[in-house]
Amino acid sequence: MSSTLDEARRLRVLLDLNILDTATEERFDRITRMAARLFNVPMAFVSLVDANRLWFKSQVGFPFSETPSDKSFCTHAIRQDEMMVVQDAMSDPRFAASHYVTGFPQVRFYAGLPIAHNGAYIGTFCLIDSLPREFGEADRVILRDLAAMVANEVAAGALAEAQAAQRRSEASLRALLEHLPDSVLLLDDAGAVVSCNPATERLFGRAAAELSGQPAAALLGVDDSRLAPAPGTQLRFETRLARPGATIDVEVALSAVEIDGLPHRVASLHDVTAHRAALEAERGAEQRRLAYFRTATHELRTPMASILGFSELLTKRDYERDMARELLDIIHKQSTRLLSLINQMLDLARLEAGGPDEAIRAAVSPVALATAAIEETVPAARKGDVTLDCGSAVPFISVNPGRIQQALGHVLDNAVHYSTPGTPVAVVVAPAARDGRRGVGVTVRDQGIGMTPEQQARMFDAFYRAGERSDVEGHGLGLRLVKEILDIHGGAADVMSQRGAGATVTLWLPAGDAL
Questions:
Q1: CA–CA separation, 279 vs 251, rounded Å?
Q2: What InterPro entries does UniProt report for this protein, alphabetically (predicted)?
Q3: Which of 130, 286, 435, 492 matches a 20 to 30 Å C-alpha distance to 507?
Q4: CB-based burial of residue 369 (10 Å sphere; 0-12 exposed, 13-18 middle, 19+ buried)?
Q5: CA–centroid distance for 391 within its chain
């Protein structure tokens, strides 16, 4: 072994052992005690040479656990491959002036052999006496044997530490795989399942023992050729798995690995069903937004064309007073319709976007909201047709009062306008539970024209109007606003109707303590 070992590498090997500043161990102390007795010396050491100190893993006859390494005997000993013996330090020019010789512990005799580990000298096994002495070949053989025992113990400790680290690593890997949300399959070179994690068991609905040995291609519903990645590459593909009562889409990532010298494959399976559904929902939402935009453009163009057309007539010629008034009335009516449409479209946009104004909540009485909605929505001529019935112990609700009153207003407006004057419209406010949650139901029941099942299925769509009565104005946005308002409050709407037999609409909202 070269005596010019790279010091940085030597120190790295020493530090990697994690042996410095550890507790004493009997396996080392037994050897130093034996050496002191065999050689009849007052001091024996397992000395580890750190960057600026000697640290003693084991010692006999010395009161300190470490000393400075400058001008020390052990520092010289690790720089040579053979045993270093100093029979009389006072006669050796290298050490005669050393403070270890002139001062405590007054070293006269030193014999030390380097301790090697991973190709580096990490320290020495050494003997010290305060008297000069001879050290023959028989003594040297014994010292070599004892130093070899120390080196073996160092190696055994390093092996035990490496094995413990491997066990920790394996335990960490097992814990990672067990808690990994994605499924992981280990396949042999033939493509059969060797092992899997719990997520895989849940994905296939089968135990690991049942999956073991199964051809992965059959499990994944693909050809064997799709499960043969080239070394250093990764295959990715999507497939569909049929499970009892469901079909799921999974993304598969497959890599070739070597385990214990044998080729294997690792397949990671990620359930992308929800992601695909979200993409489809987003595409559907985008299509609805485009349809909404096209319809909105048409709805805005109609009153705008009337306003422009009639105003142009007024600007190009003079009309008699009555005719001019009639044209102005049309312009005013279409302007009002346009403003109403714009306001409802802005309301819908604000609701869909959310924001601090939509997050406002206050504890209010649903009876008070229903009363206010009737007062502000129902025309004076029809107020006698509307009755309000309140159940007992109606809980308060925590809502945006303006929005809930707006939703009730739209439902009441439909009930009044789609029923004949003189026919009753009943409003009932009562406690109502839904899915185990306390809440309040506000029911509006009319005896109007009613709706078909097809109309009910579309009644909350933007710009849809159930029943084309020319005497009923509207844009088809009112019930869409109702749906958005209920959604942001965690509420729901129930509708019962038959064509020609009226409609019953119930708006359900959670009680204040159920939010």
A1: 15
A2: GAF, GAF-like_dom_sf, HATPase_C_sf, HATPase_dom, His_kinase_dom, HisK_dim/P_dom, HisK_dim/P_sf, PAS
A3: 286
A4: buried
A5: 46
